[in-house]
Amino acid sequence: MSQLHSPALNTAFKAARRAGDNTLRAANNLLEFKPDSKAFNDFAAEIRSHAAHTITEILREAYPDHRIISADNGGELTGKGHEWLIAPLEGESDYLHGSAHYAVAIALRHKGILQDALVFSPERNELYTASRGKGAWLNGRRLRVSARIEAANALVAAGFDRENDSLLNGLLTRTAGVRCEGAAVLDFCAVAAGRRDGLVRFNLHPCQAAAGALLVQEAGGIVTDAEGNEHWLDKGEAFAANPKILAQLLHIAAQHA
């Protein structure tokens, strides 16, 4: 069964594949520059900009009337019409350090409702897709969130800053472990695929969260903000898991607020 359930996903795949392949090839050229040098930083910025341009060009050619929003272009969500949320190089720091933990993420909203999502991991050649009501998929395989029911046995993907030290300590003592990696969207993918049992993330741009969140939802999980509400995209924070684990994660968060 094809995992590209809509024309929008086919277009997103074309854009993500081209941008991701270009980014993968460019990684070899980073070795020519001294880390932290101006030339290195300029080239890194050029890679991200080129990926964004590639995606935008393909999306606009297919859908000239749609809005395209990224962290770099300063666009804001309106909840009106069609809106593409793109993260051309999610996990940029990992990419610049030679890690495979980065991805291209593209999501489509219509009148404020997420409809389609695609995440492409170039190094691992993993393609995650989801369409509303049609499930979540990884390279043609249907995804389901973890069936684990006890937080004490759960492995949680997380992203924190110093303001969340108390919650981090709470999770470390009441779960099986916490994993903090760079690319937020790949943490959502890991939850959708059952590789992680839950997710706790703060300081998210909507473009970092949208595609991954729909994947989790279509894989049978729930995404909320720290208070258990549906404002996660606006507030820039997300808790994601199956219903039983999510309830326990939210309880831990409430105790460490």
From TrEMBL:
Mg(2+) binds at L89. CDD domains: IMPase_like. GO terms for biological process: inositol metabolic process; signal transduction. Coiled coil: none annotated. The keyword Magnesium applies. Keywords: Magnesium, Metal-binding. Belongs to the inositol monophosphatase superfamily. This is Inositol monophosphatase. It comes from Conchiformibius steedae. The lineage of its organism: Bacteria, Pseudomonadati, Pseudomonadota, Betaproteobacteria, Neisseriales.
